[in-house]
Hints:
Layout: H1 2-25, H2 44-71, E1 87-92, H3 97-106, E2 114-118, E3 128-131, H4 142-153, E4 160-165, E5 169-172, E6 181-186, H5 194-206, E7 226-230, H6 231-237, H7 246-258, E8 262-270, H8 277-294, H9 300-315, H10 317-333, H11 336-358, H12 364-368, H13 374-390
Parallel strand pairs: 1-2, 1-4, 2-3, 6-8
Antiparallel strand pairs: 4-7, 5-8, 6-7
Helix pairs in contact: 1-2, 2-9, 2-10, 2-11, 5-11, 5-13, 6-7, 8-13, 9-13, 10-11
Amino acid sequence: MRTERVGLIGVAIALLVGALLALLSGTGPGGAPATAASTVSYPPLLKWVLWGTLGLFAAVAVAWVVLTYVVGAGYEPPPIEYGPETVQVRILTVDAESVVQRTVDSLPDALADVHVVAEEPLDVAGATVHAVPDAFECTAVRKGRAIEWARRELETDREFVLYLDEDSLVESFEGLPDADVVQLQERPRRTGSVLSHLADVYRMGVQLEQRAFARLSIPLFAWGGGIAVRSELEDAVTWDRETLVEDTAFVWAAFEEHDADFALASAVCRNEAPPSLYEIAQQRRRWAAGNLQAASMLPARYRLLTRIRNCAWALSPIVTLVAVPLSLLGVVVYGGLFVLLSALLAAFTVFWYLRGVFVYGRERLTLALATPLAPLVTVVHSMGTVAGILAPPDGFRVTTKTGGD
C-alpha cells in the first residue's frame, strides 16, 4: 500500500542520515578539524562512540517522525461495530487476587463473560476463575502457556477475546471496531517509584507511533495488557510458541502468516507502572531481549528496523547525559554540526516526555513540572534495554504488581 511504501522509504532515509553522520565523524571531530583554540584532546574511540550514537539515534528519530506524522497522519480510531456482548474477557495472573479483583470491578456491566486465568486457585467475585493445570504442556512458557491453555480449554461463541493483565483497570470501553487485532491504549499509573512512573510517561509519548500500525503490513509491537483478537484468528495463529514477548510474537505471526488487520481503539486501560527501578529494568530487559529473539520471524526490512530501534533506545541516554554536555565544549572541540545534532536530539527526548504528559488529562500540570528530569528519565527507560541486549534473561519474569493507585 502507499503508506507502507512511504514508511519504508522514510526508514531508508533515516538510516542513510545515520550513515552520513557516521561518515562525517571520520573527517575530523564534527566534520571539521578542531580549532587552534582547543586545548582539550578526546580519545578517538570517544569520538566514534559519540558520533555513532548520535547517528543511530538520529536515524530512529527520523523514522519515528515519518511513521507518526506521515504514515500515521490523520489516523482516528475506527467506529465501534461490535458491542461488549460480542466480547469474552480473559484476565491473566499468577496469584494476585486483590489486584485482579480491582480489574474485574473496573469492567462495565455489559462485559458479562469474564474469566480469570491463574496459576493458583483464586476467589474473585464477578468472574469465573480457572487455574492452569500443572500437567498442561505446550511449547509456550509462563504467560504464553496460560493463554494457550485458555485458548484450548475455554469455549466461546463470542466474536472477540479481550486479554487484560491483572492490573489493567478499564477506564473506558464501549465496544470494538471491525479489525482482527484491536489494541487498547494504556495510561500507566504510579504505584511506587516516581522515576519509574515518569519513564512510562515518556514511553507513552514515544508510543504515539501506534497510530501508524494500522497502515503497516506488520505492527512494530503489541501490548498484551489490553488487546482484543478475533476468536477465529486466535485459533488459526495460536499462542503456542516459546517467546518472552507472547503478545508481540502473536501479532507478528498473525500479520506475517494470516494477513490480519489492526486497529488502535479509543478504549483506555490504567495499568500499573513498575513499582521500583529494579522492576522497570527487568521489564524492559525482557521486552528488549524478547523482541530481538522474536524478530527472526519478520521480513528482513522489519527485522533490521526492530534491531536498530532497540540499540538506539539502549544508547539514547548518551545523547542527553554525555553528548549535550560535551557539545557545550564542542563549539571549539567538535564543531557546529555536533552541537546542532546534540541539541535537536535532546529536544526530541523532551518532546516525547511532554507528549506523554499530554495524555494524562488533569495530571498534566504535575507531570509537566518534572520535565527537567527528562535526561534522567531516559536512563530509567533504557537501562533495562541495555541489559536485555547484553545479557538476555533465561526465562519470563512477571513484573511485580502492588494493586495500589
